Each structure stands twice: as C-alpha cells, then as structure tokens.
C-alpha cells in the first residue's frame, strides 16, 4: 500500500489553471490517432501532490473533448520515482521503458560511435505522453479533494482578489492560483514583463512520429530499435535523429530535429508533407530512410522556440509552474523533470508554513529555490544543440573521438554528461532551505 504523506498544517484552496486548448487539427501524431485525452502534465502533477497533503484543489482545463495526443517524453530516474511515490505510476510499470543507455552512430554511415550507459543515479525512462496523461488523470480522479472542471478555459485573472475568470463567465476564487497553462500561458503576462513572454525562433524544428511495432516486424534492422531498451541517436550537420521504445516496446518514438526557415508562429498544428522530410534527410543513412518511409503522408512539425528566463515567478498569491514559466528545449530531456521539481518545491513550502499569513513567504521561497537552477538548465539545453549539430566534418570527427575516449575510461561526454549533471537534485531540501532563510526575517504574520 502507498504510504500517506504528512498532512499540511494549513489547508489551502488551490486553483490550478491547466493547459491551453489544443486545436482539433493536431490530434493526429505520427501513426497514432485517438479522441481520448489531452491534459497538462504539470497541472495534474501539482494537483495530485497538493491534494494528497490535505489541500482542496480545483483544476481548470480548457479541454472539452478529451484527446490522447503526443509522442514520447523522457523521465530522469528521480522523476520516475516521484511519479511512483505519488501513486501515478506503478513500480516497474510496463508503459514506462527504462533505457539502459544511448547508442550514438554516424549520421551518414550508421557506424557505431559509442554506447553510453546509465549512470549510478539510475536510468533514463521513456513513456508516451498520452500514457502519462492517462495515469495522472486516473490518479487525480481517485482523490476526493481534487475537482477537475473540463471546458473551463481561463481568459483572465485578478491577482489582487485571487480570482480566475473563465470563458463561461464563472469566477473561480482560491487562496493560491497556480498557472500551469503551458508555453501559451494566459496568465504569464500578468506576472512577467512583455519581453519575458516573447519567444524567439531557434531556426530549428522537430518532425515527430510514433511507429507501431507491427510495422517494423518485417525488417530486423528496424525491429531491433523497438525491441531493445536503448535509445539510438544520430548527430548530423545541423540536425539529429533520436529514437526509443515506449508503451512496453509496442511503439517506436521518432524525433528528427532539422533546420527551420524560422517563418510562421509557434504552433501545435504545423504539419508538413512527407516529401519534405525525405528531402531534409536524403543524405543520411539507410536506416533513417526506412523509418521515414513508414511515416504518414503528413508529418507533425514542431517549431522550436527559445523563451528568455522568467525574471519573476510569483505575484501576489499567483505562481507560474512548468512550461508556463520555463519552457525547455528538448535537447536535454528536462521538460517534465523540471515541472515535477516545481511541484515538489511548492508542495514542500506549503506543507511547512503554519498560518495563511505566511503564504507570501512560501511563494517567495518557491521561486528562490527554483529560479537559478532552471535558468541554468534552460541555458544548457540551448548549448547542447551545438554539440549535436556540428556542421564541419572535421569537428564532427573530433567530437566523436572525444566520445570514444570518454567511453573507454567508462565516462560519458558532451550532451550525455550534461544530462546526467542535472539528474541529482533535492528540490524539497532546496525549498526547505529557502523558506528557512526567509523565516528569521519575517514577523509573526509572515511579513518581511
């Protein structure tokens, strides 16, 4: 039986603003088409964590029709353990594949460069976005003190009165408002200056698809990719490809990062005709060609945008969480992990304070414990693309030689080393320390 966490001293009514609605055109991702579910990961995660500790939580979700969309997402070892500790994932849950490491091969010849193994902290895990959504929703629906309101699109917020205005005209009041409404956050501009809400194109985009195992079974070269518990990566000039199994090895997640013209707006709905994918990777090895051959006629194409670090995370009793605050580029696989760390931090400080007057201290400690780390990871994620996308052939060979030398000494290098560097972090301890530092400077009512 799952152990119960310690209850909070002061229960709050918390309003979680979930993900912005996804237009219907975007429900087909690669080979998967469903009409079951689309919900935000960060919003449901924080709702579950707070509810289990005694808070009353209302989740406002834009979605009316439940949509199951998405592709693979990465869970570092501590992130997976957190989902298990909250009863979201079962121990050894087959939907979540533990990866033994990464095989890196030459982009043009498919010759193996190096195999990097998991570090002592644990293994990277891969799960389908839709499977994690379903697990989160199922867990949230088990908790009586979580109310999920579908079709409740937040259109405005009154920070002074702690009120969220919903498109239906309803006004939802709480003690604390958590904006977990994603990169297109409705609330962020109420907290941050305009320049912090403007995205800049990276000049890159990602073709994404998932391929069912049965389509791979006639080709041993491709079948091995979904059968084994390894991710595979090919780093080429201005591009890279990564594949790994999800859903108990029944789906192969495929991501092809490529140069982008930079035109157009950030969108979930962008698709491109298959022949553009073929052209972009024409010079690559035959295994990449065979994967692309299995793609649908139209392939989702996600433009990658860079957001500046949020200068502030809180205002009044409203806080930002997850992508609404610190959207991550995909190069280090830290998007879900950082939303979970946000969740751990805010849950920790709300469990410590002893009266409602100390809520401003809790939200301030939340920001202080998280901002420097997240800013550093955002910068590192952008830097990682330089290692992956070297255009000069001599530079590529020198990088690969460094990778092989590191492997011979049983070490990891460049991007893998950067990934592992961010796996060890105690978000709860950091939050406790930040709150402790603030407490001595506050009066009995929590004012500084």
UniProtKB/TrEMBL annotation:
Keyword Oxidoreductase among UniProt keywords: yes
UniProt keyword Flavoprotein, yes or no: yes
InterPro entries: FAD-bd (IPR002938), FAD-dep_Monooxygenase_BioMet (IPR050493), FAD/NAD-bd_sf (IPR036188)
FAD-binding domain sequence ranges: 40-376
GO molecular function: FAD binding; monooxygenase activity
Signal peptide: none
One Pfam family recorded for the sequence: FAD_binding_3
Keywords: FAD, Flavoprotein, Monooxygenase, Oxidoreductase
Family named by the database record: Belongs to the paxM FAD-dependent monooxygenase family.
Protein name: FAD-binding domain-containing protein
Annotated source species: Coleophoma cylindrospora
Organism ancestry: Eukaryota, Fungi, Dikarya, Ascomycota, Pezizomycotina
